[in-house]
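Morning. Coffee machine broken again, so started the prediction first thing and wrote up yesterday's gels while waiting. Chain of 232 residues, entered below exactly as on the submission form.
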Amino acid sequence: MLRDLKEEVLEANLLLVKEGLVRLTWGNVSGIDRGRGLVAIKPSGVAYEDLTVDSLVVLDLDGQVVEGTLRPSSDTPTHLVLYREFPEIGGVTHTHSVRATMLSQAGVELPCLGTTHADHFFGTVPLVRELTPEEVAEDYETNTGRAIVECFRKRGIAPMAMPACLQRYHAPFTWGKSALDSVRNSVALEVCAEMALGTWQLRPEVAPLPKHLLDKHYLRKHGPGAYYGQGK
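Came back before lunch.
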């Protein structure tokens, strides 16, 4: 079932290791088949070197396993909330990449300080509030997803223009058009976090990128008149 999707999700999970975004089993990637309403995701706690296409778990959007013998990632409920509430996304990545997680733990948003950031994220990567004791006790992972959605809705942020967030005290989540696209956004987020931390060391009072440069760099890649790359 969903062989092509599962092969892409496997490739995306292994890319986390290749890009240095995970240690041990601290991360997961999922992808969705929108037509069938089914999600493929990494199984919980399985080492990346042991992953195979057949070890991936397939679930519906209600969290019912329809294929696979292993338990899905413990973060699955967060992924499912994002798929249900952000219908334009096709893949979700969660890591504990070091620098983005440093920002999450410190409670610091990631402003756009330069054009590298602007090429991927249309403004400041938001910090999602910490969960309450009641939310943690009720359903930690589901409420993590709900807090992300709440943040984006309250602030009027378009998920595809800002395919990333920093969960307070936790770590980053990214998403994209596909599983592999969500990993690419995770790579970009970690690099931009590293650049920001270095920039703040050199000049703590640095101002964000001016809006006309933010608009130019983001829209030339993602806007209706985008001209970056070779097209389709």
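Residues 179-202 form the longest helix (24 residues). Going to sketch it on the whiteboard this afternoon.
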